[in-house]
Predict the structure.
Amino acid sequence: MSLPGTEVVTIESLRAALEAGELIFHYQPKVSMVLGTVCGAEALIRWCRPDGTMIGPAAFIPLAESTGFITEITSYMLDKLVADLVIARAADPTLTVSFNASARDFEDDRLVQAIVRLLELGIVPADALEVELTESAVLQAGPALSERLGVLRSRGVRLAMDDFGTGYSSIDTLSKLPFTALKIDQGFVLRMETSSKDASIVEASILMGHRIGLEVVAEGIETESVFMQLQAAGCSIGQGYWMARPQPLDRLIALLRGGQRWPAGAIGLLHMATLDHLEWRKALIDALLSDDRQLHTDGLTRFELDPTECRLGRWYNGPGRGLSDLSAFARLGEAHVALHDCAGQITAASKAGGRMAALLPSLRKLTEHSTHIVALLQELEHDVLTRLTVGERTRTQRVLSKRPPPAE
Ligand code: C2E
Ligand code: MG
Ligand code: MG
């Protein structure tokens, strides 16, 4: 591995850099595509040399990983991260940060224990921290990984699968480990504008992430049109040079204080929520209509009665909260609880042997609730469209497209 010029990176030079405090984090903002505001930041390591040159991770992280020195870097940087987070949360108390961990960091308990100790000190809440792990790290990390990630998750730390789509077993890994978010690899996102295949892969990944209850983050957004495409597809969080580059802590804080905004929009998410609701309703009807006794019982047992656990409910309590200032939002919550109550009565009656004919009046009631839910989702859509046409979006777009974010 060599640095600009002829100098070669060695473990000794890395160790000296670590001890001299030359390894620092730059922070790249993550933007909520529903609200159009910063909702978090990713910590990305940089080697800041005494002569002012800045060296990116590609020049030294592979060596650190292959030699195992990465565990010392991670441990040291974790303390730095928490100190930075405390400062940044003074500007935005809801800010969360994610940081990248390597497979080697999970070969033993040290990283997990260090995070647990930090949380026990109560300096930052667990849900302000997210660990990003690439698929290849997951594949290298060995069987204890699942248990270690489980410990972090049980403490409330969030876990993101980074570079989704580039490894060998993305979907298998996602289903086995307790991830809370997936980050679509920037390669797909960068090619979205020129390749309809890549655009379809991204859209399908957003839908799949949503269906399994994961937050979906798209990274590598370099243009406004990709931002818009992702927003229309229902992506909830975006990261990329078009919005902001990785930047030193003080610049991140200035950006948080400045309250910069990007185009907000939730049409894609609202369409997904409508589909979620219709599919939930169809699952109930399918189970009720099934002649096969076993299928009937299984369908009703699997049917999601808890209004916070169905997909619409998870959307409502998750990314949908970005619409909570709209008046239809609270009404949607009430209508949704009433709908689930009604479904609970129907499934109980059916399990007790009630025939379809006897259930019809309750099903009529369910249809009324359902129609009301769809109408409220459309009202929210209309409110969002109204907000957009008032000019907030076009104004922000004009300002942003004239002013590309400065380089690091
Ligand atoms: P990553 O975690 O996938 O981070 C995203 C990378 O994409 C960052 O590169 C970021 O600067 C870059 N990026 C963000 N938006 C755009 C965009 O719109 N267009 C393009 N072309 N690139 C964009 P960076 O900082 O060079 O980091 C590269 C990788 O190094 C990271 O990929 C991560 O895997 C690793 N890394 C960074 N910091 C750490 C760390 O503290 N520990 C470990 N173990 N790995 C780290
Ligand atoms: Mg990352
Ligand atoms: Mg990535």
